[in-house]
Amino acid sequence: MADETYRNDAHALLRAFNHRSELDSLLDSLIPVLDSFDRLRRGTENGPVPKDPAALLETFGRIGAQLESAVAHAGLLGFGAPGDAVDLDRYRIVDAVPGGGVREDTVVEVLRRGYEKDGRVLRSAEVIVAERDEEQAQ
């Protein structure tokens, strides 16, 4: 009985250590993202906001890519793209529009990407799908 208790305690400690290690790794990968926001903030606090909106959008795009990379490193993967076949375990259909030659139940627009980790859906993608055209019905 004592051996089993010891084994269970050891497994619990190992799981806690692994969770802590994963969390530390995630936080470490988010630091460069925070640095990017700090640089952006400093740039706007010490002077006027950049006059070139394209440059500002490019900066936000780079920071977004850093963030996506950091969370992907931790195992969080985004899904949902136009052209995907709808899987109701992973997608939430918000609306349907005429297909215009696109196959029925195919994603035509993604309103919010879905996210999964280790094959488990954390949030379903919210999508607009093609509905059956009259041409497809014939």
Give a written overview of the molecule:
Keywords: Chaperone. InterPro entries: GrpE, GrpE_head. It comes from Actinophytocola glycyrrhizae. The chain is an alpha+beta fold. It has two domains: 1-74; 76-138, Nucleotide Exchange Factor Grpe, Chain A, domain 2 (Roll), CATH 2.30.22.10. It is 50% helix and 24% strand. It has three helices and six strands; from the N terminus they run ααββββββα. The strands form two sheets. A three-stranded antiparallel β-sheet has the order 1-4-5. A three-stranded mixed β-sheet has the order 2-6-3, with no helix packed on it. It is flat. The mean pLDDT is 84.
Concise account of the structure shown:
With 138 residues, the protein is of the alpha+beta class.
Write the layout of secondary structure elements.
Blueprint: H1 2-45, H2 53-73, E1 76-79, E2 91-98, E3 107-112, E4 114-117, E5 120-123, E6 125-131, H3 134-137
Parallel strand pairs: 2-6
Antiparallel strand pairs: 1-4, 3-6, 4-5
Helix pairs in contact: 1-2
